[in-house]
What we know:
Chain A is α/β, with parallel strands linked by helices. Helix content of chain A is 34%, strand content 27%.
Amino acid sequence: MLRVRVIPSLLLRDGGLVKGRQFKHHKYVGDPVNAVKIFNEKEVDELVFLDISATSGGQGPNYELLVDIANEAFMPFGYGGGITSCDEIEKLFKIGIEKVILNTSAYSNPDLIRNASRVFGSQSIVASIDVKTSFLGRSEVYVQNGTRGTKINPLDYARKMQDLGAGEILLCSIDREGTGKGYDLNLLKAVSESVDIPVVAAGGAGKLEDMSKAVSEGGVSAVAAGDMFVFHGKHKAVLITYPSYDELKSLF
Amino acid sequence: MNRTVCTRCVMDTSDEKITFNSVGECSHCQIFDKDSQSMWFPNETGKQKLGKILEQIRKEGEGKEYDCIIGLSGGVDSSYLALKMKDWGLRPLVVHIDVGWNSELAVHNIEQIVKYCGFDLYTDVMDWEEVRDLQVAYLKSGVSNQDVVQDHAIFSSLYHFAVQNGIRYVISGGNMATESVAPHSWHHSAMDSINLRAIHKRFGHKKLQSFKTISFFQYFFYYPFIKKMTTIRPLNYMPYNKKEALEELVRTVGYKEYGRKHGESRFTKFFQNYYLPKKFDYDKRKVHLSSLILSGEITRDCALKELEKPLYDPVELKNDKEYVAKKLKLSVVELDQLIDEPGRSYVEFDNWDRHYALLQKLKNILQKVTNKKIKTYA
Lengths: 252, 378
């Protein structure tokens, strides 16, 4: 087992896999069930699925698809998207999902995080924080797939999530997402220093060194990436890849 | 069942159109003998011919980003060809068409090849819900060629891309050495979009929006004559031995071997090793092995021994069947029922045969008038 978890983070929309840039311009990249099967054989330790149509469409989690994914996935996986109640969380755990990821509902309904972590244990409740940084360097937490600003500073918000009982933070830079320019190291460092729970870096990974920097300079305990594991080369050809165990071992 | 088997290859009367000559050699062997004279040059002549073709491709490609296009599935033929293209100094746009059944082996091999060769890759990802709907429609139609959906998508995508990028040379891994035998009675052409649309209209539910088809006119006229697209099959101009090609791929790029032919697509594997033998009594191994016998890669005895092996390992079959059913959103029972129903011929659905017959007539007339041989995709 590696010291640092390297997690492919995959976006779902209406049952298909998509990938975008800065939370926009999403493009279809394939069938999630087949992708999971390939990641299995690549011996990936952990996966994250975020359904970006679940909250905005108002339909909640697509259980049918999640059952198919769970039946196929050998590795633990986390799911986020459209979760609004403890009943739904229970249903997701019953399907075999290891961690539930809350974003919009963590903001609009803090009691949900509090109750869920009490009932199910904080290790299985992840708070997802999407951050946009203005020209002047002021960072703000966004919800609803990065469409709605909250005026809240990410450091305060992360501490609040920890206090409510979240066991982990998935921290994504909206500005970096899908750009391959590297993680927002300042943001990672600031947030990981202000909380005690593990922080997972997301948004911007373009090469393996970005991941080692996120750990050494950003102080995170795990890294997530989408583009890197889904796209190849200058035409952004859809091709599922994952570094070998040895490559990852030498990285951290 | 008692079948007459060819005395030279291993094709038999499970091909209902097969005929035998006085010494018991089958029609496929005779076709091979005839075609190989004009199409297969695994020798010095081939080397020279290929040299000229490559020179022409490179020359026409001067100043362009790419001089040719190749579809890469991750299988041995196209992968080996890609490797050779690097040696030949070609600058292909490599296109992979993802129809939703890629195995890890396939994506691994594609990754290794394009990295090693330094080629640009483009992937065309088919909309899975549409492909699924089409595939279920094909299963319901009960026709023998269930690979039409992916094969049509692959060709169509490749040609669309070529035109888009101003490329007129399509490099294909197709070859006489490993796939010269192709019984027409087993498979109707995957390029027949009239048939595809008829089957989809009858059994499909979703509208085909992103799935691009190639029309009869495009396939036989627009692409070859207007766009001057030419398919080159370099493996026919060199000695090509699958075993040696595989060894070279493993050695140079860390290629992972497929257990079976067409292990790059989970569906093709299931379709060829289960659907076809069960429903139609077609064993595609006979086709592959016969090709290898004719090109001299293996002996007939060796092929007969290979055919004694079971088609599928029972555990593997169970897993694959469950996966295919799940991907197609069918229950295993439903899938079994569809496979158990008697097979149907493609002619039960509208198809291109009458257009094709007309085309052949026109071609013959034109050839007589112009006194020139006309090469089309046919």
